Amino acid sequence: MLNNETARQMAENVARIRERMAEAARAAGRDPGEILLCAACKTRTVEEVCASARLPIDLFGENHVQELVEKSEAGAYGGKPAHFIGHLQTNKVNKVVGRAALIESVDSERLLQKIDRAAEALGLRQDILIEVNIGGEASKSGVDAEGLWALLEAAAACGHLRLRGLMAIPPADAAPDETRRFFASMRGLLEQAAARGYENARMDTLSMGMSGDYPLAIEEGATIVRIGTAIYGARDYTRSH
Ligand SMILES: *Cc1c(COP(=O)(O)O)cnc(C)c1O
């Protein structure tokens, strides 16, 4: 069991985040009910995730396949969906398809094809987002804005995928007005993509915004914000896989 102080702190954090989410939505003339809170729970224990699942969190986000498998098998998500939000290696696709309600980080045609085949083998349709490297950073995963259109075409041609939209992580060192422009560009890309009317698509999802910038992301159109530190506190990477 988690100690009471930690559980109380987490409840307070989530309540505060929900308030700020609602404020940002109202400031942008949006319905707060259309924005989902994803708890980014990499490195967090089963106990921590279990305790957070009782709070008003909509879903969980995992970066590592092993953590997704362990926590889902332990029932840590309390029946809430889990999304895969980290870099996915093609040789681990089979453990994620069907287990993650949405794979948010698809950034190559090779990965697309692997996911499509795994979904076919399980007789299901896997929801995916395409991750865009919106800041054009060499160190980041995600497809660049030029490669996006070819990847969307390829995804639309996969009969066992359902394309739901886009995900991005803007550069960590960007100033707030620059971050806002990155978020606004993502919204522009989603709108353009939706206008193309792809097959096997329902382009209704824009996953962007983390602990430091989620109100901005909501003002610019995010439908999922992925928040870790502001819910659970600082991460201890010695516990990660
Ligand atoms: C860790 C992580 C987050 C959350 O980051 P915080 O700054 O802790 O809120 C969001 N998205 C992805 C893809 C992550 O890896």
Labels describing this entry:
241 residues, alpha/beta, eight-stranded parallel β-sheet, 9 helices, 8 strands, binds pyridoxal-5'-phosphate
Assign a percent range to the helix content.
40-55%
- What small ligands are held by the chains? pyridoxal-5'-phosphate
Structural class: alpha/beta
Instruction: Count up the helices.
Output: 9
The description of the largest β-sheet is:
8 strands, parallel
Query: What's the count of strands?
Result: 8
| Mean residue pLDDT | 96
Please give the alpha-carbon distance between the first and last residues.
22 Å
Return Rg in Å.
17 Å
Order of helices and strands: HEHEHEHEHEHEHEHEH
User: What are the segments in which pLDDT stays under 50 over at least 5 consecutive residues?
Assistant: none
Rough outline: globular
Across the major sheet, the strand order is 7-6-5-4-3-2-1-8
Beta-strand percentage range: 15-25%
Which oligomerization state do the chains in this entry correspond to? single chain
What does this structure look like?
- The protein is built from nine helices and eight strands.
- It has helices spanning 4-27, 46-53, 65-73, 93-96, 109-122, 148-156, 176-195, 214-219, 229-232; strands at 36-40, 59-62, 82-84, 102-106, 126-132, 161-168, 201-207, 224-227.
- The chain has an eight-stranded parallel beta sheet.
- The longest helix has 24 residues, at 4-27.
- The mean pLDDT is 96.
- The structure holds pyridoxal-5'-phosphate.
- Pyridoxal-5'-phosphate is lined by residues 40, 42, 63, 85-86, 169, 210-211, 226-230.
